[in-house]
């Protein structure tokens, strides 16, 4: 069975007002292999339905705005309700897991000695642990920083370009 889909699990509570996440989704929506589900719009997670979608996918992407060094609560809820049962199977084993996130702060704030004191990679370790635990292939995260800075347009444009490159890589994976 050939798996050609890429599952993007978006967790954004207000896509209408979003700058970064909205632009990122727009940048990849023309890839027919990409399926996007906004977890914040789901009232109920059907474990069997998600398990089937993920089973048919070749890669999984978690996309969210970085809230207090984490994802919105809907992502955690989805991980608890869906990935916990999946962890007992081999559905995701060997599949890439990519984190795509946006931050209000500039990239320099996320470093040792920076305003936030930690790198984004350090703050995303729980997701890397999840990937490792499930036998997934951890991908270098894509963080689009500076969405509350004067260079927001440049950050978004570069982030969209990099996201398309990541999608193309995952399609060829």
TrEMBL record:
<dbReference type="Pfam" id="PF02525">
    <property type="entry name" value="Flavodoxin_2"/>
</dbReference>
<dbReference type="InterPro" id="IPR046980">
    <property type="entry name" value="KefG/KefF"/>
</dbReference>
<keyword id="KW-0560">Oxidoreductase</keyword>
<dbReference type="InterPro" id="IPR029039">
    <property type="entry name" value="Flavoprotein-like_sf"/>
</dbReference>
<feature type="domain" description="Flavodoxin-like fold">
    <location>
        <begin position="5"/>
        <end position="164"/>
    </location>
</feature>
<protein>
    <submittedName>
        <fullName>NAD(P)H-dependent oxidoreductase</fullName>
    </submittedName>
</protein>
<dbReference type="InterPro" id="IPR003680">
    <property type="entry name" value="Flavodoxin_fold"/>
</dbReference>
